[in-house]
Amino acid sequence: MNLFRTSLSIWLWLLASYSFIFLVSANDGNDMYHNDLYARGNGSSSSHTNNWAVLVCSSRYWFNYRHMANALGMYRTVKRLGIPDSNIILMLADDAACNSRNKFPASVYANPGRHLDLYGENIEVDYRGYEVTVENFLRVLTGRLDESIPRSKRLLTDRNSNIFVYMTGHGGKEFLKFQDNEEISAHDIADAFEQMWQGGRYNEIFFMIDTCQANTMYSQFYSPNILATGASLEGENSYSHENDNDVGVSVIDSYTHYVLQYMERVNKTSKLTMGDLFTSFSVPKIGSHPGVRSDLFQRPLGGGDAMLKYGTGEGWRELGEWVGREQEPLKVRQAQTGERRAALVTDFFGGVVDVDIGEDTDQVESSASEVKQPAIKGSPKPPQRTRQTLPRNPGLPKGLPSVRAWASFLLIGVIVSAVYVQR
Amino acid sequence: MDGPRNPSTIFFQYERIRRSIIASYWIVIILAIPLWWQTTSIERLSLPSSEVYAQAEAHRGFQLPVRIILDSEFTKRDNSLALEVQTVLKDSSALDIRVSGSSGRSEGDSYLVLPSESQEIRVEGRELFFPLEKASASVLAKTLASFILPDKDHRVVQYSPRYRLSFSLLNEDSSGGQVVEAWDASNGIARHIEPITSALSVLHNFTIESQAQFYAPLAFEPLKLSEDEAYGLTPEQLTVFVNSAEWTLSSSSSNDPVLHFLLFVPSASRRPLKILNKEGKPTNSNSFLIPQWGGIVIANLPESPSKIRLSTDDLKSSFTTFSQQLLTLLGVPRLSSGAVRSRQQPTGWQIDALLRYRAIENVVRTSDTLRSTVSLVEQIPNMPVGEKVRNDVRDALKALKSLSSSSNMTLTGILATSRDALTLSQKAFFHPGMLALLYFPVEHKYAVYTPLFASAIIPLVVAAMREVVAWRKQRRGVQVPQG
């Protein structure tokens, strides 16, 4: 049976690859016009014309204050950098600002001094409270919403859209909890992204996640043009950054805090690259080991030599996790010959890329001339740590889950037969 | 009391009753299995996959007929001109192009190339006036190619049956001395925009809205130019010109794509506001276009008076620019240089070219969407496929087939069919029922089912086994005395 199945799948695979080759060659041969007219954006140039953001805080309750602050901090940043509210989908339990335990009603702060009220005056939460569900999140991404859903709750992207997806909450290996009620797995997000790609719903995606074992959440992606980063390795917790004694809980997570701090250096016309952002990650400060995944992404990340040495230096036990490290030198060479432009932070956070003043304006080549290393503000006092996760799940080698499943099945059989034999 | 009672004297331990109790449990379980199966399985109707893949192959052979008739004046000068032009055109496009010499009669859908009296190339409806002396095969072919099928342009918006056009008058800061109180937008739209929208009504359905705002600050400081009292916008600043955080540009009442047109009045203290080129020198242009988004015109008005109403005449140049931007955004092909536009803005040639472009685009998008739908359903085993989805896929396929089989459709009919096919395929792909159920690894299933069922099933299994064993023993016991 097993042999039969294996050979069948091999045959199917061969057939599929054959037909694919056939399709491609047929395509090459006779129809240059269609290829040209409808070529998908392959990231060779910045072909996006609009920016979108999906920001998800998947926790609720007062003690998860910091997750709401994370999402609101990102919201503030993407808005400041030019993504309009109509293009931001904010999913938030939103029970912190008006919580009866909140000593500062209608405010959410992300720093102990309470300098900046993130709740401000112009917040548009699109999915609130119990609307923050796995189903709604997947529906927003894939566009499979009921006709009655209003425009503000829809991700109306097309194949020229760059999307920034930010998630925060409690999670574990390959899952993220939604409001203590359900979970989304890495497979679900990967499948949703594939459906978006097939449906022509994005040009490029930048996926960022701050949760425990965050890097496992992007491990299942398989669709093109996705750049991903996470806060912590498999089997590792992500930590909160600081407490505010008056608010009484942790106010922000460490990884998000340092990302936001870096983003404060970015303005709308900034030429800072994604590589610059990634190289700014400091393990001693963040407390966990952030990861990057760029093997699905076409363009180089920029950041120069510092990026090529990503994951070395202070705080890194071993070479940091960067899936796609090997492809990077090739991408960098292509960038030098002008084929591909390095990914800028503003490609995912900013507004449009180019305008047309009668005659075509060429792309201004990026020169990372701005500040590369953020100066460290304040005293480097070690941040207070709060555990943020469910019990950790030790990494299992591939194939073990099914062995375990069969073992449990056998066990039941053994128990039943033991009873039988005893009779 | 004399110890525990003999079980066989308890009424529910009578053999028959005990066995029927155990049996009734099992009957309930066995009867419930189909119900459980029914409620936990996903409805996955089979989609016509092979047809979809075959159609995806077939659409590459999809050709739209184009008939061009050269006037006898041309063929008189050069007998083989028609054939040569056809050869050149065939090389460059996927259309079924036939060029012929004049046969004295003109068919309904064909395009005429007539000799021009003057040196200029002129377009009038479906007629092209071309100077006889210039008419070599390559020049004629090049001119015709631009009329027949436009090139791909990244500025053109994706096709949608409906668009909303939003016209906004933005005073940067009306407290700064001068305020444009009102503008005669309805007249401007009637004069400059409606001719286009009505000419393109076969392609799109337009909804138009307009507004005026009195405070629309920029998110950056324009450069102060040193040489004269002027301010400039660098190309980089143009990309972040639209301050969408603070400007409310369109109502969100529908899901149709919006094309924005902004008339921006800089505050009195920042005039004139000029657009700079890459070298930092001011250009003569006062407008720019954001691909697939809309167009912006900067109006540097004279300083006085302090309150202005913009009349139709004042708005003439702005709305002319808007109309040009609208044409660009919708993908109406530009007439190549040297061609003089006729009185009617988009000529028959241009509209036909756009119809062809959109029809081919729709056919390609439809078959792509269908293929994606089918391959996703194959790829994701948990994805439900309901009856509506299947019907939509079938109908879209039918529409595509009718396109490739019928040769006597008008161009408008072809577009309408391709649009229906696209809408249906999109409806199938984005059907709310097509949401894959959550991914559950095998461990999760065990984790869910074991605590629920194992505790109940094991005693039942064991009880059944004991009963069977007892029954067999009993039978043997009965049989032994007999033997």
Short summary of the structure?
The complex is a heterodimer of chains A (423) and B (483). In chain A, the strands form 4 sheets. In chain A, strands 3-2-1-4-8-9-12-13 form an 8-stranded mixed sheet, with helices on both faces. Chain A has a 3-stranded antiparallel sheet with strand order 5-6-7.
Your description of this structure?
The complex is a heterodimer of chains A (423) and B (483). Chain A has 423 residues and is α/β, with parallel strands linked by helices. Chain A has 2 domains: 2-39 and 401-422; 50-372, 3-Layer(aba) Sandwich (Rossmann fold), CATH 3.40.50.1460. Chain A contains 12 helices and 15 strands. Chain A has helices at residues 2-30, 32-38, 65-80, 134-142, 186-198, 254-263, 274-279, 283-286, 304-308, 328-336, 346-349, 400-422; strands at residues 50-57, 88-92, 127-128, 161-168, 171-172, 175-178, 182-185, 204-210, 226-230, 240-243, 250-253, 291-293, 322-323, 356-357, 359-360. In chain A, the strands form 4 sheets. Chain A has an 8-stranded mixed sheet with strand order 3-2-1-4-8-9-12-13, with helices on both faces. Chain A has a 3-stranded antiparallel sheet with strand order 5-6-7. Chain A is globular, with a radius of gyration of 23 Å. The two termini of chain A are 35 Å apart. Chain B is an alpha/beta fold and 483 residues long. In chain B, 44% of the residues lie in helices and 17% in strands. Chain B contains 12 helices and 16 strands. Chain B has helices at 15-40, 49-58, 72-77, 81-92, 137-148, 185-199, 235-239, 316-330, 348-379, 387-405, 411-429, 442-482; strands spanning 65-70, 96-101, 111-116, 121-124, 127-131, 162-171, 179-183, 205-213, 223-225, 230-233, 258-265, 273-275, 287-290, 294-298, 307-310, 339-340. In chain B, the strands form 4 sheets. Chain B has a 6-stranded mixed sheet with strand order 2-1-3-5-4-16. In chain B, helix 2 (49-58) packs parallel to helix 10, helix 4 packs across helix 5 (137-148) and helix 9 (348-379) packs across helix 10 (387-405). The longest helix of chain B has 41 residues, at 442-482. Chains A and B meet through helix 1, helix 2, helix 4, strand 7 and helix 5 of A and helix 7, strand 13, helix 9 and helix 12 of B.
